[in-house]
Fold each of these.
Amino acid sequence: METKDFIESGILEAYLLGFTAEDEKEYVQNRILTDQQITDYVLDLETDIRLYFDQHTIPPPPEIREIIQLRTTKRDIQKKKHVFEQKSAEEPKKKDEYLEIEVNDTYIKVHKFWRPAFIAVFILSKIFLIAGLYYYFKTTSLEQENEKLKLEIQNIK
Amino acid sequence: MNELERMNNGVDLHPVTKVAPLTPLEVYDKFGAMAYGIILQIVPQPHLAQEILVNVFASPQLQACNSYPFTFAVCVIKLARAKAVEAKKKLMAIGTDDVENTLENLDLSPQRIFDLSFRQGFTPDEVAQKLKISKSEVLKALHDFFKSYRNS
């Protein structure tokens, strides 16, 4: 069909207003994509259709906007939840790698390997304390015995 | 034809200026009054028309208009008409059918044919059958309707 005949056939008007069948749609889309004259006509026709329906605008009640907002928000939340569930099912390893925690206490946290080190230091300190005391008392008693022996020697002389 | 090509053609249409996909509320703010007008033309009951209007703008099909190759307005017009016709057909199945009576008046003017196709929800084949004319004459009448509107 010639371009002029195609434009005047009215199929483009039917296509833009949604009156065409599926097979007709494909044919019209191909003609629009391949023929610049048809493309230009479609652009003009779209403007005409828009202007025609702009004449018949009626403002809807204000509460309709709120209802639409509520419905779309609810749908978005459901969609996000669905996406989140899908992600968590797909990536369980990644989730294990990073553990986000919020610390809200006054304790210092150290690595668990420090625990035996602290115990060893505690036990060694006790051993050294006992050893220190033992040698202190031993030295003191030896000094006293030494003094005693010195006095005895002097008495014998 | 995509949005960039439109821009190159120097045509100032809505999708050209659009960067991110429009949200349903943004679309509603732009085209809500137009869609409500269309729905009321097809379904004159305000309460039902408002329900259809909500269905149009809360519908996931509206997001498809973001990838629609033509203007957003035409996509919304199509969607509003489709939803309204669907609701009207449900009503007609329940209530009385007054279409047959109106078709007794065999007015073949482009205005009448546009009214039957757009507002009454008949396909071009059905209109041709009811008015006893060919489908190509129905389509030609749609062309003549917008041609006469453009020239008026």
Amino acid sequence: MKIAIASGKGGTGKTTLSTNLAAYISETISNDSNGQVVLVDLDVEEPNSGLFIKGDILKDEYKYRATPVWDSNKCTLCGECKTICNFNAIAQLPNTILIFSELCHSCFACSELCPEQALPMVDKRMGVLKHYQQAGNLPNNDKLTFIESRLDIGEISAVPLIKQTIEYVEDNFSDEIIKIFDSPPGTSCPVIETIKDADFVILVTEPTPFGLHDLKLAVETVKELGREFAIVINRYGIGDNGVEQYCLENNIQIIGKIPNMRQAASLYSQGELLYDKIPAIKEQLVLIYQAINRINR
Amino acid sequence: MKNKEIVVISGKGGTGKTSVTASLAFLAGNEAVIADCDVDAADMHLLLMPDLAHSEEFFSGQTASINNALCTNCGLCQSICRFKAISNSNDNYVINKIDCEGCGYCARICPSGAIKMEDSHTGSLHISNSRMNNTLVHAELQIAAENSGKLVTKVRQEAKRIAKETNTEYIIIDGSPGIGCPVVASITGTSFVVIVTEPTVSGYHDLSRISELVKKFNIKMGCVINKSDLNTQLTYQIKEFLISNNIELLTELPYDNVFTKAITAGKTVVEYATKSVIETNLAKCWDKIKIGVQ
């Protein structure tokens, strides 16, 4: 089961919920010999889950995407490639073909349609995937696996790395295992890549006009993708009741309300998990996990 | 007069980027044109409460569509699509619009000419008069549309055009979180980057990644440490990081629920918390930015 934890607005608590929920679930299933939970940080531009969840590294691998490279010996400068490319990633000068690999979407059209095979596709590094086992801050915890991908600075598209990371997770873990995807913020391509095949999406918001405005966009996005979803309100108690009003009017389920506490902000600032130190937060995780189990059935 | 573009970014979301930008917009008044380039989650208009003066639709990129009357079901398109955007249901080939990246490969090779590429409507652009005596250029990304940075670039172009026409010196840009396309599109060619951070392990981590990106563009940077009393030890470490990376410390702001209260009241924090240390510090911050950008 794939659970994506997303939000429109950044900084509403996606990573806080993802890491605490994953650690809490791993603790509750500790007596179940087959139990396992996988936390996957797909906010590859700014991955933060690893600051809260530590573990022993099992695998560390570079991820690549294919982009064309110009072979000047074969090229006849016919200019076909430049016409084909829909992303303006190829330019032609009198004696040269220039390739802007950061604009390339790796569609292979230029390479496969070049009459002279002068544009072979070559792998280019875009980031690194790390796979940790026995993660979590609990002693002898072998129930929690943590996977993180990190986009190289200067690479501008997160989508291919997110795609390959999800493929890695699907290849290595069976369908019934609970997988928690810590999503990037926003509502565009990287988020869509993260949530489009999720079984359940939890949208984390905060009870402020900013939170509400961005939540509405996120809800429309999730609906467009036809995903099942529910809301968690973080920093509950500050701001106003606009988010609750909106959920009520639109028949959207709120499955948790994480209280606003300076203690939580302070522990978070140090890279600490919260549920094992603040009972009021653990109570909310219990409710959220119950809601997940209802969906999973 | 040459216009000076100042962009506010954060790497991590939720550090107070929009609260700071809106405050700068208020302090600048008619000295600046404001551009909300966080088009995924554009919130500035909630505080600037603008009168909409002009709106236009924005198209970028393309999407494929198959005319099943012409299609001979040869399946070539499906075999070459790298995005798995073409599937076959009940002997009809269909394009999944969400997965299609608009490369046009399928349309180009379809032997029966059954596939055509259509321009995608990816958003709308608005130009408004804000209640702060300045112009706000903002945009809305279409639901589930791609954000390649083109709409961001368009917002900046419009802001620049208006600044030129009205002889306005500064352009204040609210950027988006992350280090990818929309961020690169918001910082390329600007005169000064303001990074809003917070003393949390994630705030510091994201500050180091975003500043490394900005360095590649060789743009002057300044930093606002928000919630600086939340973790004084980390605040100290961040300050050392700023010194060693040649980033100017613009100001520090306290951890205070007044930021949320201001947003809830539809006001910028400088208007809401008048005569507070927050107001004083943000005013000094704006002065430092104006010096830094020269």
